[in-house]
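hey m, so remember when u said the tokens were messed up on ur end? i reran from scratch. heres the input so u can diff it against urs
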Amino acid sequence: MSTLMLSATSATTGSAFQIRATSDVFTNRSFQAVGVMSSSTGTATVIIEVSNDGTNYVTLGTITLALTTAPSSDLFFAYTTYEFYRARASQVTSNGTVTVYMKA
């Protein structure tokens, strides 16, 4: 499992994760966002982006979370052959954090 974004508290883009040219390139992948609020309720929106050159990214999928003081999560699966993956938090409610994982 790879962490694409760790404890984002505001709109930010995580570092790119590169898949080396191995048998791992052609496989199913799951993308999971986990978020929590320190108090109250809120929302977080995470966009999973992919690229073949590490510069020009396109949207693979979007995860929207309803945040509370108990952790919440959502995920999606995709069969992809891209070389670069990253997570971009487009919105995180104040007092909220979100972490994004990818697993092949």
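this time it looks ok to me. The beta strands are 2-8, 12-13, 17-18, 27-37, 42-51, 58-67, 72-80, 84-92, 96-103. if urs says something different then somethings off w ur setup not the seq
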